[in-house]
Specification:
This protein is α+β, with helices and mostly antiparallel strands. It is 31% helix and 39% strand. The protein is built from four helices and seven strands; from the N terminus they run E-H-H-E-E-E-H-E-H-E-E. Strands 1-2-3-4-5-7-6 form a seven-stranded mixed beta sheet, sandwiched between helices. Helix 3 links the parallel strand 4 and strand 5.
Length: 141
């Protein structure tokens, strides 16, 4: 069983530092602190983290989904991202959800496709090929 909870800013900073070190990303930025950070707990241990950032009045972005190595392959990243979809649509009232995934990150590419994201663009950033995905959350009549 999983429990997902909103984290405090200080705890989120520690989690972001872990995510950044696990993914070879630059140091913590101010924009990281403006997101809502969530952890998933399994058997009383933090197993993973994700963040939801507000882009504008109609869209949000999933940032930094990361699962500790010993918890990978157990559906935790799927649960975090499905929660992100719910949170963006039902709590933040957003119409679109976006995310980026490095081209060489096969598990994340499979995950975002499985939960309904569509790749709409690719670009290079600091020597990495980045894929940009989007998911429509609300279907208008």
């Amino acid at each position: 069983m999983f429990v997902i909870k909103l984290e405090t800013r200080s705890d989120a900073e520690k989690l972001i530092d872990f995510v950044r070190s696990d993914n070879d990303l630059p140091a913590l930025s101010v924009s990281d602190l403006l997101c809502d950070h969530f952890v998933i707990i399994k058997d009383t241990q933090i197993a993973g983290v994700t963040a939801i950032g507000r882009c504008n009045w109609f869209s949000a972005e999933i940032y930094h989904t990361c699962v500790l190595p010993q918890f990978r392959g157990q559906g935790i990243a799927t649960a975090l991202n499905e929660f992100a979809i719910y949170y963006a649509r039902d709590i933040l009232a957003k119409k679109l959800l976006v995310c980026t995934v490095r081209e060489n990150n096969e598990p994340s590419k499979k995950l975002v496709a499985k939960i309904g994201f569509t790749k709409v663009a690719s670009f290079e950033n600091n020597g990495n090929l980045i894929n940009y995905y989007i998911k429509q959350l609300v279907v208008e009549d």
